[in-house]
Amino acid sequence: MQLTPFHLAIQVRDIAEARDFYGRKMGFAEGRSSDQWVDWNFFGHQLVTHLNPAIGRDGQVPAIANRVDGHGVPVPHFGVVLPFDEWQAFAERARGFVEEFVIEPYIRFAGQPGEQGTMFFMDPSGNALEFKGFRDIEGELFAT
C-alpha cells in the first residue's frame, strides 16, 4: 500500500503565535490561510491550526500522560516518523527553538525490537508533538 499524506486539524489559542512556532521556528511552509486557520506543510502532510478563542491566551489544550519506557508520554500527541539521520538533524535543530522538552531526545527501547529515537515537546497552545527516528523504518516501525 502506498503511504499517502495525512490531514490533521488541531486547535490553537492564537494564530500569530502558531505562525511564529510552526512557520518561523519549525520552518514549515504555510499554505492556504484565513484569520481563523492556517494550513502547514508538516513533512509533506497537511497540518491545519484552527483558532479556538475559548482556550484563552494563557490556556493550553488539556492532556494526560501514560508511562512508556519510564517516561510520561503526553496523550493526545502527533508527529512524524523520520529516517534516523533526519531525526538526529531535526533533534539538533529543535534544541534551538524548544524551550522545554516534555521528553528530551533519546533512544527508546535501546537494543530491542522497535528501537527508535524519540522526543516530545509542546507547541505554545499545549498540543504535544512527537518525532521518531528509525534506522530501518519498514522493519522496525511495527516490530513487536
TrEMBL record:
> Gene3D superfamilies from the entry?
2,3-Dihydroxybiphenyl 1,2-Dioxygenase, domain 1
VOC domain residues are 4-134
PANTHER family according to UniProt: PTHR39434, VOC DOMAIN-CONTAINING PROTEIN (PTHR39434:SF1)
* Protein name as annotated: VOC domain-containing protein
Q: Record the organism.
A: Microbulbifer yueqingensis
User: Source taxonomy lineage?
Assistant: Bacteria, Pseudomonadati, Pseudomonadota, Gammaproteobacteria, Cellvibrionales
